[in-house]
Specification:
Shape: globular
Structural class: alpha+beta
Number of strands: 17
Bound molecules: pyridoxal-5'-phosphate
Oligomer: single chain
Helix content: 10-25%
Mean pLDDT: 95
């Protein structure tokens, strides 16, 4: 086995076909045993439930090479559990946790030559997804499903260091109370596309969504949760039933408390508090933490004291500690690192 001849530092965040993908079919009330296959295309009936009624959910995690040469993933058990919750909310059958972890392990191992080397900054992105596959025309759940995992190498998220981004308060809502904001459903992303394109057209990197009911509390962005740091170094993260429970955010909270000895508050965060925070970041698997330098609310600018040049000091420490745990040079909490080979 030899690593593929890829310019790891310059591949960007796009799809590159790898050799193997995993598929398991659900039919007559049961998942089949599943298999690794080489065909990257899917043929479905034109009336498949996923096409007509968007019955689909997904996950996202990464495999990377640690300093001592192992290929590992980070907390895949939490992705498995979250996907089970997403499936239940969309009336889809759950793919069992142990099978999910086994399928991730097999898919990454089969594509080991595509896992970028340590130090390249690149990773192998893993995308488990599930969809209703049989024809459905009356609105109802499908009876047949596919659970799949595809992998694609992705480049370093930050080329030349993490520069703080500028975000805007969106006039659109991401998720309704009692809606689907807490699950990783494709439908949440379909309806976010117009809002993100509008933000880009107006010169912003991302949207800050407020709570849909009162528009007074901070929720999250289209694909990452917020963490704030107060002027006296308390880490604050918004709590709401319509926020997607980010595994990165949950891990950062643990790191803040148990590795850095910081105070953490998980609570509703009013938008009018944001101007008083010292640091702001977005957290998710792709970037780990992206620093936010400026938040614009209809022309009213909130400039974070940490500025537009670099991460604030607390967010930098959280970033360094979490990536240190992931890369294997800081000891991980029990069960966080899943060794593939
Ligand atoms: C996936 C996702 C996140 C980040 O979750 P991680 O588990 O940290 O990758 C945050 N918000 C939304 C809306 C998401 O879909």
């Amino acid at each position: 086995m030899a690593k593929k001849n890829i310019d790891w530092a310059n591949i960007g965040f796009g799809y590159i076909k790898t050799d193997y993908r995993y598929v398991s079919h659900y039919k007559n009330g049961a998942w089949d045993e599943g298999a690794l296959i080489t065909d990257e295309t899917i043929t479905l009936n034109e009336c498949a439930c996923v096409f007509q009624y968007a019955q689909t959910c997904f996950e996202g995690l990464k495999a990377y090479t640690t300093e001592d040469g192992h290929i590992v993933t980070f907390r895949p058990d939490l992705n498995a559990e979250r996907m089970m919750n997403s499936a239940a909310r969309l009336e889809m059958p759950q793919f069992p946790k142990e099978r999910f972890i086994d399928a991730v392990t097999k898919t990454v191992a089969a594509n080991a030559d595509y896992v970028p080397p340590f130090g390249s900054g690149a990773t192998l992105y893993i995308r488990p997804f599930m969809f209703g596959s049989n024809p459905v025309i009356g609105v109802k759940p499908a009876e047949e499903y596919q659970f799949r995992i595809l992998t694609t190498p992705v480049g370093p998220y930050f080329k030349g260091g993490a520069k703080p981004i500028t975000i805007c308060v969106s006039d659109f809502d991401r998720a309704a109370p009692h809606g689907t904001g807490h699950v990783k459903a494709g439908l949440n992303y379909a309806m976010s596309l117009h809002a993100i394109m509008e933000a880009h057209r107006n010169g912003f990197d991302e949207n800050m969504y407020l709570d849909a009911a009162t528009r007074t509390y901070v929720e999250e962005t289209g694909g990452a949760n917020f963490i704030f740091v107060t002027k006296d170094n308390t880490v604050v993260t918004p709590k709401s039933g319509s926020i997607l429970p980010s595994i990165t955010r949950r891990s950062i909270i643990y790191v803040a408390e148990h590795y850095l000895g910081l105070k953490v508050e998980e609570r509703p965060v009013r938008f009018d508090e944001v101007k008083d925070f010292a640091e702001c970041g977005l957290c998710g698997t792709a970037a780990v933490i992206s620093p936010v330098g400026k938040i614009v609310d209809h022309g009213n600018e909130i400039c974070m004291p940490s500025g537009m040049e670099k991460m604030g000091p607390v967010i930098q420490k959280l970033y360094d500690t979490l990536t240190g745990i992931q890369m294997g040079h800081i000891e991980a909490p029990e069960g966080w690192i899943h060794v593939i080979k």
